[in-house]
Specification:
Blueprint (H helix, E strand, L loop, with lengths): L2 E3 L5 E3 L11 E2 L15 H13 L4 E4 L2 E2 L8 H17 L5 E4 L2 E3 L4 H7 L9 E5 L9 H10 L3 E5 L12 H8 L3 E5 L9 H13 L2 E5 L5 H9 L4 H8 L9
Parallel strand pairs: 3-4, 4-6, 5-7, 7-8, 8-9, 9-10, 10-11
Antiparallel strand pairs: 1-2
Length: 249
Amino acid sequence: MSIISNLFGKRKPDLPPVDFGVLKCDMHSHFIPGIDDGAPTVEASLELLRAMEDLGFRKVWTTPHSMADGYRNPPEVILGGLEKLRRAAQAAGIALEVQAAAEHYLDHDLQERVARRHLLTIGQDMLLFELAFINEPSVLLDIVFQMQTQGYTPVLAHPERYAYWHADTRMMEKLKDRGVLFQLNTIALGGAYGPAVQKAAERITDKGWYELLGSDCHGMKHIEAMQAVRTAPYLHKLIDGGKLMNAKL
């Protein structure tokens, strides 16, 4: 085992690469071809699925963006794309199980869609949603309450990436008190989104607030970052903590 030095001159052993096989399932990605900013073609999708299989995953929940403006992607579009991807994967000899939900953007359309239950979930009730990166939505707690009233379990995508919470975690505390699950973008722990996001991810890890890991994979650069993050101490801490729910999905 090699030895590295930290900034204070102390020497510590490198950590071995994490085996993503212990997670079994990745629950946030963009593999359906041509419907959002993820894989543009079937060929690109298959390359990503093979790479996820090589990383040790046995199953993926792919979650295209779904929003009022931009990538609308109603359930029928996503499920149609899923069937196309499954057929291509089977023909290519890829054994990875592929399921589909959506990454729902909290916009003016989401409240109405929650009321109609016109949404795709991970499993029976896990509703993956994301927020704007610029300003905290004023209706956040209201929409969480509505989701739960309709029988959904809210899963907040990548809370570490919302800069407005980097210096003030009170809203995150309120969300956890209300039973919202937090999903980490795994590569954040390797600095893929910059040092501020990495520090936020580490703070949330220290608080024990993450229940799910997701690659949020859009392309091969994300795969390379997934490979690189495998030795990150905080990734080991999360997986060794026994709180992650990925294997049950």
